[in-house]
Amino acid sequence: MSILKVENLSKSFGGIHANQDISFEVQPGEILGVIGPNGAGKSTLFDLITGFTKPDKGSVIFQDQNIFGLRPDKISNLGVGRTFQKLKPFADQTLLENVMIGAFSKENNQKVARDKALEIIEFVQLLEKRHHYAKELSTGQRKRLELARALATDPKLLLMDEVTGGVDQKTIPGLVELVKKLRDRGVTVITIEHNINIIMDISNHVLALDQGKKIAFGQPKEIQNNQKVIDAYLGTVDAA
Ligand code: ADP
Ligand code: MG
User: For the whole model, what pTM was predicted?
Assistant: First the structure.
Protein backbone atom coordinates (compact mmCIF):
# COMPACT_ATOMS: atom_id res chain seq x y z
CA MET A 1 0.00 0.00 0.00
CA SER A 2 1.31 3.47 -0.88
CA ILE A 3 2.29 5.97 1.83
CA LEU A 4 1.24 8.90 -0.37
CA LYS A 5 -1.35 9.02 -3.12
CA VAL A 6 -1.75 12.23 -5.09
CA GLU A 7 -4.62 12.52 -7.56
CA ASN A 8 -5.36 15.27 -10.06
CA LEU A 9 -3.66 17.84 -7.90
CA SER A 10 -3.99 21.27 -9.50
CA LYS A 11 -3.06 24.87 -8.80
CA SER A 12 -3.17 27.99 -10.95
CA PHE A 13 -1.65 31.37 -10.18
CA GLY A 14 -3.68 33.73 -12.33
CA GLY A 15 -3.23 32.32 -15.81
CA ILE A 16 -0.28 30.09 -14.91
CA HIS A 17 -1.12 26.41 -14.48
CA ALA A 18 1.65 25.67 -11.99
CA ASN A 19 0.31 22.14 -11.35
CA GLN A 20 -2.23 20.51 -13.62
CA ASP A 21 -3.89 17.20 -12.74
CA ILE A 22 -0.77 15.69 -11.17
CA SER A 23 -1.23 12.07 -10.05
CA PHE A 24 1.32 9.64 -8.61
CA GLU A 25 1.93 7.30 -5.68
CA VAL A 26 4.86 6.83 -3.34
CA GLN A 27 5.69 3.48 -1.74
CA PRO A 28 6.81 3.26 1.88
CA GLY A 29 10.59 3.24 2.28
CA GLU A 30 11.42 4.43 -1.21
CA ILE A 31 13.16 7.49 -2.61
CA LEU A 32 11.13 9.23 -5.30
CA GLY A 33 13.13 11.68 -7.40
CA VAL A 34 11.33 14.67 -8.94
CA ILE A 35 12.87 16.29 -12.01
CA GLY A 36 11.95 18.97 -14.50
CA PRO A 37 13.14 22.29 -15.88
CA ASN A 38 12.89 25.52 -13.88
CA GLY A 39 9.28 26.61 -13.58
CA ALA A 40 7.98 23.04 -14.18
CA GLY A 41 5.99 23.17 -10.92
CA LYS A 42 8.20 21.05 -8.62
CA SER A 43 8.29 23.41 -5.64
CA THR A 44 4.59 24.18 -6.09
CA LEU A 45 3.84 20.46 -5.88
CA PHE A 46 5.66 20.34 -2.52
CA ASP A 47 3.80 23.46 -1.33
CA LEU A 48 0.46 21.84 -2.22
CA ILE A 49 1.25 18.52 -0.52
CA THR A 50 2.56 20.18 2.66
CA GLY A 51 -0.18 22.82 2.94
CA PHE A 52 1.96 25.92 2.30
CA THR A 53 -0.19 26.69 -0.75
CA LYS A 54 -3.90 25.86 -0.96
CA PRO A 55 -4.58 23.51 -3.87
CA ASP A 56 -7.43 24.29 -6.28
CA LYS A 57 -8.52 20.68 -6.68
CA GLY A 58 -7.49 17.05 -6.45
CA SER A 59 -6.73 14.83 -3.49
CA VAL A 60 -3.71 14.04 -1.33
CA ILE A 61 -3.93 10.88 0.76
CA PHE A 62 -1.17 10.31 3.30
CA GLN A 63 -1.37 6.95 5.06
CA ASP A 64 -5.11 6.63 4.42
CA GLN A 65 -5.82 10.15 5.60
CA ASN A 66 -6.94 12.96 3.34
CA ILE A 67 -4.57 15.87 3.97
CA PHE A 68 -5.79 17.96 1.02
CA GLY A 69 -6.05 21.62 2.03
CA LEU A 70 -4.99 21.12 5.67
CA ARG A 71 -2.76 23.67 7.36
CA PRO A 72 1.04 23.12 7.28
CA ASP A 73 1.36 22.50 11.04
CA LYS A 74 -1.41 19.89 10.88
CA ILE A 75 0.25 18.10 7.98
CA SER A 76 3.64 18.26 9.70
CA ASN A 77 2.14 16.79 12.89
CA LEU A 78 0.76 13.88 10.88
CA GLY A 79 4.29 13.02 9.75
CA VAL A 80 5.04 14.89 6.54
CA GLY A 81 8.23 16.95 6.79
CA ARG A 82 9.88 19.20 4.27
CA THR A 83 12.93 21.28 3.52
CA PHE A 84 12.84 24.45 1.45
CA GLN A 85 14.64 25.36 -1.76
CA LYS A 86 15.20 28.84 -0.33
CA LEU A 87 16.67 28.16 3.08
CA LYS A 88 15.00 29.89 6.01
CA PRO A 89 16.94 29.16 9.18
CA PHE A 90 16.67 31.55 12.12
CA ALA A 91 19.96 33.29 11.39
CA ASP A 92 20.52 34.72 14.88
CA GLN A 93 19.92 31.43 16.66
CA THR A 94 22.36 28.61 16.97
CA LEU A 95 22.20 25.39 15.04
CA LEU A 96 21.03 23.61 18.20
CA GLU A 97 18.29 26.17 18.84
CA ASN A 98 17.11 25.90 15.24
CA VAL A 99 16.80 22.12 15.47
CA MET A 100 15.13 22.33 18.91
CA ILE A 101 12.39 24.46 17.32
CA GLY A 102 11.63 21.47 15.12
CA ALA A 103 11.74 19.11 18.11
CA PHE A 104 9.30 21.28 20.09
CA SER A 105 6.60 20.52 17.54
CA LYS A 106 6.39 17.02 19.05
CA GLU A 107 7.92 17.44 22.49
CA ASN A 108 7.25 19.99 25.24
CA ASN A 109 9.99 18.91 27.62
CA GLN A 110 13.07 21.10 27.15
CA LYS A 111 15.59 18.40 28.08
CA VAL A 112 13.98 15.75 25.88
CA ALA A 113 13.78 18.19 22.95
CA ARG A 114 17.43 19.13 23.44
CA ASP A 115 18.61 15.53 23.57
CA LYS A 116 16.60 14.68 20.50
CA ALA A 117 17.97 17.72 18.64
CA LEU A 118 21.53 16.72 19.57
CA GLU A 119 21.00 13.15 18.37
CA ILE A 120 19.75 14.45 15.02
CA ILE A 121 22.58 17.00 14.73
CA GLU A 122 24.98 14.12 15.23
CA PHE A 123 23.14 12.16 12.53
CA VAL A 124 23.68 15.04 10.05
CA GLN A 125 27.31 15.22 11.22
CA LEU A 126 27.34 18.77 12.50
CA LEU A 127 27.77 18.15 16.22
CA GLU A 128 30.86 20.31 16.50
CA LYS A 129 28.90 23.25 15.04
CA ARG A 130 25.93 22.99 17.42
CA HIS A 131 26.62 26.32 19.14
CA HIS A 132 27.35 28.23 15.95
CA TYR A 133 24.82 30.76 14.73
CA ALA A 134 22.98 29.66 11.59
CA LYS A 135 24.31 32.73 9.77
CA GLU A 136 27.89 31.50 10.36
CA LEU A 137 27.31 28.20 8.55
CA SER A 138 28.21 27.47 4.94
CA THR A 139 25.45 26.70 2.43
CA GLY A 140 26.15 22.96 2.70
CA GLN A 141 25.99 23.15 6.48
CA ARG A 142 22.75 25.15 6.33
CA LYS A 143 21.29 22.43 4.10
CA ARG A 144 22.13 19.94 6.85
CA LEU A 145 20.60 22.28 9.43
CA GLU A 146 17.43 22.45 7.37
CA LEU A 147 17.40 18.66 7.10
CA ALA A 148 17.98 18.29 10.84
CA ARG A 149 15.17 20.71 11.67
CA ALA A 150 12.79 18.76 9.43
CA LEU A 151 13.92 15.43 10.95
CA ALA A 152 13.26 16.75 14.45
CA THR A 153 9.53 16.76 13.64
CA ASP A 154 9.68 12.94 13.21
CA PRO A 155 8.58 12.75 9.58
CA LYS A 156 7.56 9.44 8.08
CA LEU A 157 7.65 11.13 4.71
CA LEU A 158 10.21 13.85 3.98
CA LEU A 159 10.06 16.20 0.99
CA MET A 160 13.42 17.72 0.11
CA ASP A 161 13.62 20.65 -2.30
CA GLU A 162 17.01 20.75 -4.05
CA VAL A 163 19.07 19.62 -1.10
CA THR A 164 22.24 19.57 -3.24
CA GLY A 165 21.39 22.82 -5.06
CA GLY A 166 23.83 25.71 -4.71
CA VAL A 167 26.35 23.84 -2.55
CA ASP A 168 29.93 23.38 -3.58
CA GLN A 169 30.76 20.20 -5.48
CA LYS A 170 32.82 18.52 -2.80
CA THR A 171 30.01 18.61 -0.22
CA ILE A 172 27.50 16.90 -2.53
CA PRO A 173 28.52 13.24 -1.91
CA GLY A 174 28.10 13.72 1.86
CA LEU A 175 24.59 15.10 1.37
CA VAL A 176 23.69 12.22 -0.94
CA GLU A 177 24.95 9.71 1.64
CA LEU A 178 22.74 11.40 4.23
CA VAL A 179 19.67 10.96 2.05
CA LYS A 180 20.45 7.25 1.70
CA LYS A 181 20.95 6.96 5.48
CA LEU A 182 17.57 8.59 5.98
CA ARG A 183 15.94 5.94 3.83
CA ASP A 184 17.81 3.29 5.82
CA ARG A 185 16.29 4.86 8.96
CA GLY A 186 12.86 4.12 7.49
CA VAL A 187 11.98 7.60 6.26
CA THR A 188 10.27 7.72 2.86
CA VAL A 189 11.79 10.50 0.75
CA ILE A 190 10.63 12.65 -2.14
CA THR A 191 13.53 14.69 -3.46
CA ILE A 192 13.67 17.41 -6.09
CA GLU A 193 17.06 17.07 -7.68
CA HIS A 194 18.70 18.55 -10.77
CA ASN A 195 21.75 16.32 -10.93
CA ILE A 196 20.73 13.38 -13.11
CA ASN A 197 23.58 11.22 -11.82
CA ILE A 198 22.28 11.62 -8.28
CA ILE A 199 18.75 10.82 -9.44
CA MET A 200 19.98 7.64 -11.13
CA ASP A 201 21.96 6.69 -8.03
CA ILE A 202 19.35 7.15 -5.30
CA SER A 203 15.84 7.01 -6.77
CA ASN A 204 13.57 3.99 -6.81
CA HIS A 205 11.15 5.91 -9.01
CA VAL A 206 11.27 9.22 -10.82
CA LEU A 207 8.49 11.73 -11.49
CA ALA A 208 9.17 14.12 -14.37
CA LEU A 209 7.28 17.41 -14.65
CA ASP A 210 7.17 20.00 -17.40
CA GLN A 211 5.02 23.13 -17.59
CA GLY A 212 2.89 22.06 -14.65
CA LYS A 213 2.16 18.59 -16.01
CA LYS A 214 3.41 15.09 -15.29
CA ILE A 215 5.23 13.95 -18.42
CA ALA A 216 6.59 10.66 -17.08
CA PHE A 217 6.75 8.40 -14.06
CA GLY A 218 8.80 5.24 -13.76
CA GLN A 219 12.07 3.62 -12.82
CA PRO A 220 15.17 5.78 -13.32
CA LYS A 221 16.36 3.84 -16.40
CA GLU A 222 12.99 4.19 -18.13
CA ILE A 223 12.93 7.90 -17.37
CA GLN A 224 16.44 8.44 -18.68
CA ASN A 225 15.38 6.87 -21.99
CA ASN A 226 11.97 8.54 -22.17
CA GLN A 227 11.81 10.76 -25.25
CA LYS A 228 9.47 13.31 -23.65
CA VAL A 229 11.85 13.68 -20.72
CA ILE A 230 14.85 14.01 -23.01
CA ASP A 231 13.08 16.68 -25.09
CA ALA A 232 11.81 18.67 -22.12
CA TYR A 233 14.72 18.37 -19.78
CA LEU A 234 17.59 15.96 -20.16
CA GLY A 235 18.58 17.35 -23.54
CA THR A 236 19.11 20.72 -21.91
CA VAL A 237 21.03 19.82 -18.75
CA ASP A 238 24.66 19.06 -18.37
CA ALA A 239 24.68 15.41 -17.37
CA ALA A 240 28.35 15.56 -16.34
P1 ADP B 1 9.99 24.73 -10.10
O2 ADP B 1 10.14 24.49 -8.63
O3 ADP B 1 9.77 23.47 -10.88
O4 ADP B 1 11.11 25.54 -10.66
P5 ADP B 1 7.71 26.35 -9.31
O6 ADP B 1 6.76 25.39 -8.71
O7 ADP B 1 8.51 27.21 -8.39
O8 ADP B 1 8.66 25.60 -10.33
O9 ADP B 1 6.92 27.32 -10.29
C10 ADP B 1 5.99 26.84 -11.25
C11 ADP B 1 5.30 28.03 -11.92
O12 ADP B 1 4.41 28.65 -11.00
C13 ADP B 1 6.26 29.11 -12.36
O14 ADP B 1 5.76 29.67 -13.57
C15 ADP B 1 6.20 30.11 -11.24
O16 ADP B 1 6.52 31.41 -11.68
C17 ADP B 1 4.75 29.99 -10.79
N18 ADP B 1 4.56 30.30 -9.36
C19 ADP B 1 5.03 29.55 -8.31
N20 ADP B 1 4.65 30.08 -7.14
C21 ADP B 1 3.92 31.20 -7.45
C22 ADP B 1 3.24 32.19 -6.65
N23 ADP B 1 3.23 32.12 -5.34
N24 ADP B 1 2.60 33.17 -7.32
C25 ADP B 1 2.60 33.24 -8.67
N26 ADP B 1 3.21 32.34 -9.46
C27 ADP B 1 3.87 31.33 -8.87
MG1 MG C 1 11.71 24.94 -7.30
Answer: 0.93
